[in-house]
Amino acid sequence: MKPCLSILCLVSCTLAGCMSTSPIYDARFGDANRVARAAQTLDPGAPSRNVQNPVIDAKATAGAQIGYATSYGYAVKEVKQSVITLVPGQ
């Protein structure tokens, strides 16, 4: 009985190694993410329906941000250009 059981175990393990489960898992990969994203989207067609030109330009936006920062006492940082100096021979 013991050799028969060990042969049966060996054959079943060998056949289990030949079974391919990857296509089964790959077919449903990402379903949970797609379902969660679809549940959180209120109106999927909104971006294609509401195409408009921007109402405010860049100069007005920058002025509004500076005004907001100064009204609350934030320091407005000036953006400095990065300078890379290449010295030949060093």
Q: Overview of this structure, please?
A:
The protein has 90 residues and is mostly helical. 57% of the residues lie in helices and 0% in strands. The protein is built from five helices and no strands. The protein is elongated. It starts with a helix and ends in a 19-residue tail after the last helix. 0% of the residues are buried. The model has no long low-confidence stretch (mean pLDDT 78).
What's the short story on this structure?
The protein contains five helices and no strands. With 90 residues, the chain is mainly alpha-helical. It is elongated, with a radius of gyration of 32 Å.
Order of helices and strands: HHHHH
Task: Please tally the helical runs, counting DSSP H or I stretches of 4 or more residues.
Answer: 5
Large-scale geometry:
elongated
Care to count the β-strands? 0
- Range of helix content: 55-70%
Strand content: under 5%
The N- to C-terminal Cα distance equals 82 Å
Kindly report the average pLDDT value: 78
Counting copies of identical and different chains, the oligomeric state is single chain
Name the structural class.
Answer: mainly alpha
Q: Radius of gyration, rounded?
A: 32 Å
Instruction: List low-confidence stretches.
Output: none
Instruction: Report on the biggest sheet.
Output: none
